[in-house]
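R.M. (postdoc): so does anyone remember the format we settled on? I'll just put the structure tokens first.
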């Protein structure tokens, strides 16, 4: 483990002590959010990103060790492990290096070289490869054996070359040089598969395409590979053959002897038949891994911004799932998101003036009856027309102040409405009611509602179905967990889906907490968590600080102060001659505390500063304050757009090639990376974030293909 600590420290540029402590905490069952928040003294205040990087790199090193052990075991069983080979295997730093060392000893299926060995041609190959045969043709005559299929000297020499070709392919220094050449000088090329012109129109840019692998961006690589998987494109990675053959000839071909000629021919065959396919396969894998990592990083960043969107808060909401023919489904929710009422209105022209008047009357009655603070309107079909209807209502005649109308991104709402979670929550309601509820809850608290949906269905990813699904899931789970724990969770009202992301819990303990809450009533203190079935001391340690109890027995139960530090805060209060609640409510008392007096071997300034910040703003929400988004009223469909218009919008997705922006016309526009700023932009995520409000210029509108080009340049 010491070697792993040193390597991780070196690769990540982190102190050895911090890495060692973090690994120990992880192995003891600590979660990333818990370690980052409550073990700052041990880790040197490493943040979640650094801790996650340590965890992931440690995992890769452990997997490398497992593969190394498997190889050693295989070699020992076959009595092939020498001291020299064992030493080389123990020093291998990468999987590629490890596999290169093992390649000559790997059990093989029948190959041309193995068939040549069965014919007894290995001594001939050795004499040629080591330049011991003055005349390979004469030497080959010694190995003629018609029964074995070696009827002529050409047969013997061909078999010898097959063996030499395999030796060249398995030569570790050569593979290393070849790998470097392919990584630096190869090109990825794609062409249209025969007869796929019409079907593959969306891949038109890649019908005759070539780009150096050293510079290809992740989104283009994933697009090309997707086209190949769909049978539209033929894809190959190639390098100039003469450069590769120069490497082989410089390593194995000496002079112009007859042996050199045989070795040169074997080298050409080795490259074309063995090395080139191997390098291409390996490079594809490496490029795919890098592209996956980039795409997953983009997805995770977008998801974080979406989950951390500003919540309206505990306000009564009228939620509208808009539609034309089938009408608009409406629901009324209280501040906790409980369903109070549902109905359908028909406000649009196809249903006539009478239906519109009835719809207006219903909306006014519901706003008054349920004291509606805001209207959540889904941004799907008929949203702008429904928004126009809601704005045109005569609120004055009902003596009402018009509530703000907020367009809510409904991506994934239909997934939720048909899910087991939704059926469990609303067993007696159909999917249209559930979908409208989801829209309303997204306004009240986006994080609490969106955790119920598979992140891949939320619509903020890039090629999410093409990347490594295990790595994607791990990254998205990390992101959701980070967001949930940074905000904190109200223990007595949170859904089991939200609770499942709290540090140390998971699905089973979350379900147990909800059941305990139902059977025993609301939790009065964090300490009562220990009575939950199967929630032991370790789980309590990990989760307690992230769970809040409003009006709990202990004043610190509503803060992010961990129960393990309650005694410390109580001592501070006692030293100040007041109660803990007084420390929370009175700034003048907190100012009198000299926190340096409370530093111990296990409690340092990072923890003490966190505690003082919590006492100042107990249970504070790190999310931004809610501000309603308002689109241009004169623009409600793509037909209203004209080049040169400058419009307000909200970023819905950030990709490696730009950002998609909702401007209120049911079709997001694209701000290409070249149009994000007046200066060169390498990473769009460094310029814009999901949910960011922006002003954009309409560059062009393709109504037929429903494509809108936008610019953020000034």
């Amino acid at each position: 483990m010491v070697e792993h600590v040193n390597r991780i420290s070196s690769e990540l540029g982190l102190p050895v002590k911090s890495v060692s402590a973090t690994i120990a905490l992880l192995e003891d069952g600590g979660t990333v959010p818990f370690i980052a928040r409550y073990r700052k003294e041990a880790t040197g205040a490493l943040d979640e990103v650094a801790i996650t990087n340590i965890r992931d790199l440690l995992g890769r090193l452990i997997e490398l060790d497992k593969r190394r052990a498997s190889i050693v075991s295989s070699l020992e069983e076959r009595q092939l492990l020498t001291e020299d080979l064992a030493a080389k295997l123990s020093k291998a730093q990468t999987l590629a290096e490890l596999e290169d060392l093992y390649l000559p000893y790997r059990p093989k299926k029948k190959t041309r070289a193995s068939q040549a060995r069965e014919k007894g041609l290995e001594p001939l190959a050795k004499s040629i490869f080591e330049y011991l045969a003055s005349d390979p043709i004469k030497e080959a005559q010694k190995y003629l054996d018609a029964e074995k299929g070696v009827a002529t000297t050409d047969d013997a020499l061909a078999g010898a070359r097959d063996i030499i070709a395999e030796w060249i392919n398995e030569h570790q220094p050569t593979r290393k040089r070849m790998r470097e050449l392919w990584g630096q000088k190869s090109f990825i090329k794609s062409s249209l598969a025969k007869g796929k012109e019409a079907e593959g129109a969306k891949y038109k840019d890649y019908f005759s395409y070539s780009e150096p692998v050293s510079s290809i961006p992740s989104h283009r690589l994933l697009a090309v590979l997707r086209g190949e998987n769909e049978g539209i494109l033929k894809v190959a990675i190639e390098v100039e053959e003469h450069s590769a053959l120069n490497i082989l000839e410089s390593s194995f071909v000496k002079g112009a002897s007859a042996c050199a000629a045989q070795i040169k021919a074997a080298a050409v065959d080795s490259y074309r038949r063995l090395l080139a396919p191997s390098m291409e396969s390996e490079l594809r894998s490496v490029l795919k891994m890098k592209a996956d990592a980039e795409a997953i990083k983009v997805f995770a960043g977008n998801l974080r911004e979406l989950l951390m969107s500003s919540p309206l808060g505990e306000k009564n909401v009228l939620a509208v799932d808009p539609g034309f023919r089938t009408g608009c489904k409406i629901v009324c929710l209280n501040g906790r998101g409980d369903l109070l009422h549902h109905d359908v209105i028909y406000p649009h022209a196809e249903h006539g003036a009478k239906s519109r008047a009835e719809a207006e009357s219903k909306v006014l009655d519901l706003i008054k009856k349920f004291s509606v603070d805001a209207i959540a309107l889904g941004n799907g079909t008929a949203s702008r027309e429904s928004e126009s209807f809601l704005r045109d209502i005569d609120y004055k005649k009902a003596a009402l102040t018009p509530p703000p109308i907020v367009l809510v991104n409904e991506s994934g709402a239909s997934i939720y409405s048909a899910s087991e979670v939704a059926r469990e929550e609303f067993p007696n309601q159909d999917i249209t009611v559930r979908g409208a509820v989801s829209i309303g809850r997204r306004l009240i608290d986006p994080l609490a509602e969106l955790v119920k949906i598979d992140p891949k269905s939320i619509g903020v990813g890039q090629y999410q179905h093409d990347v490594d699904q295990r790595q994607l899931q791990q990254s998205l789970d990390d992101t959701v967990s980070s967001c949930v724990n940074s905000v904190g969770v109200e223990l007595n009202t949170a859904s089991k889906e939200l609770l499942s992301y709290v540090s140390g819990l998971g699905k089973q303990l979350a379900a147990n907490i909800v059941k305990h809450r139902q059977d025993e009533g609301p939790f009065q203190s964090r300490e009562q968590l220990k009575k939950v079935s199967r929630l032991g001391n370790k789980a309590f340690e990990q989760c307690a600080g992230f769970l809040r109890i409003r009006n709990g027995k202990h004043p610190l139960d509503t803060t992010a102060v961990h129960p393990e530090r309650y005694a410390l805060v109580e001592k501070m209060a006692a030293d100040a001659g007041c109660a803990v609640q007084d420390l929370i409510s009175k700034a003048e008392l907190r100012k009198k505390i000299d926190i340096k007096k409370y530093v111990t071997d296990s409690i340092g300034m990072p923890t003490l500063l966190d505690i003082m910040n919590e006492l100042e703003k107990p249970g504070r929400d790190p999310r931004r304050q809610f501000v309603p988004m308002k689109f241009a009223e004169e623009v409600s469909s793509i037909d209203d757009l004209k080049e040169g218009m400058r419009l307000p919008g909200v970023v819905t997705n950030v990709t490696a090639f730009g950002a998609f922006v909702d401007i209120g016309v049911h079709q997001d526009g694209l701000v290409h990376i070249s149009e994000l700023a007046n200066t060169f932009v390498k990473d769009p995520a460094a310029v814009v974030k999901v949910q960011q409000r922006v002003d954009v210029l309409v560059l062009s509108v393709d109504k037929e293909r429903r494509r809108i080009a936008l610019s953020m340049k000034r």
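R.M.: ...and that's the designed sequence above, right after the tokens. Also worth knowing: The domain at 2-105 is CATH 1.10.10.650 (Arc Repressor Mutant, subunit A). The longest strand covers residues 646-655.
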